[in-house]
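Worked example

This section walks through a single chain of length 416. The input is the sequence exactly as stored; nothing has been trimmed or padded.
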Amino acid sequence: MADRRRVAVTGIGAVTPIGIGRDRLWDGLRAQRSAVRTITRFDPSRWRSHNAAEVNDFDAADFLERKKVKRLERFGAFSVVCAMQAMEDAELDLGTEDRERTGAMMGTALGGLSFAEEQLGIFLQQGLKAVDPTLALNVFGGASSCNIAIELGIQGPNSTNGMSCASGTIAIGEAFRAIRDGYADVMFAGAAEAPLAPLCFGAFSIIRAMSTRNDAPDAASRPFDKDRDGFVMGEGAAVLVLEELERATARGAHIYAEIVGFGMSNDAHHMTAPRPDGSQAARSMRLALGDANLAPHEIGYVNAHGSSTPLNDPTESLAITQTFGEHAGALQVSSTKGYYGHALGASGAIELAITSLALSRGWLPPTLNHDAAADGCDLDYIPRAGRDADVEYALSNSFGFGGINAAVVLKRHDGV
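Given that input, the structure is written out below as tokens.
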């Protein structure tokens, strides 16, 4: 343990429904308003659910040269733009870095599937010659980290995992390990998701996983609330720059937080339903705490997965109680999905960006639309309004289809 290197978060890039870029993301959090609306990307009337959290003000041409915009579909553009934002925020000069020790690890649940869906429609209507020639290059999930590597010219560790709604948290956890254990000095880590297309959206509506509160979209995502009726699909991305702490300090980088622990487990129970006893979700948190060499009472805040679904919310609450024991009653917990819905694989990365900012700036975001606690949900969920708080350690959870559980522990950076 003593020879493990410390890992700092020095840059944040974000494309989200509540704001693009670090500052607008933070402003969106402080505004304490949901970005969920009736979906405009296509006509949702054929589906039970009509709501989504869209990134309506994103134009890749604002960030990338025309030829690059033409080469990248939405999922890939989200990835590259976030990495560029994070690099700029970190004031990182790649010209002075060892590019073979600088890498990218990303996550996504669906990758370029919505782009493939669009191109299939074109193929069926107009034939093969009308299909975008970049289809094969954009549809696979690995395009996320590979496009970042190509854009930035970085040649170190590179991967994109597809572990459903936990993939962003896993990508950041694995990038943390790569630096901590000496395989890299700098990593671009996060996740991207652009799933808002009729079939991708409809697949989740068919299995009745999404909210049907169509008459009040901004109240549809309501984690841990007794009137929740499913998640709201969102889109977006976030990328963090992770660096070995000593080199970050030596170059005078601003440090938002340190990553100090990572844990992962699998329910081995069901493709969509969490294990009812919460044991493996709790184990992922305990593993992260053990990796950080922390006792449960040292955690002051949990950014919960909190998907606003009937099964996840009480199971996660149970797992938190199992993990933190007597301290659970004093723990501050919130789910920020009330703001921007559930961006599937990107959610964990967005939430780790938010948690880093919350530790750095001393304000914890609320659980929006939380009016009355659901059965089995008896923690302090920071309902409706955020609060100032001096928190040293925080934990962020992500859980996904297939029973995957992941948790990352962050430490506020005090300059020591």
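What to look for: Residues 238 and 350 are 5 Å apart (CA to CA).
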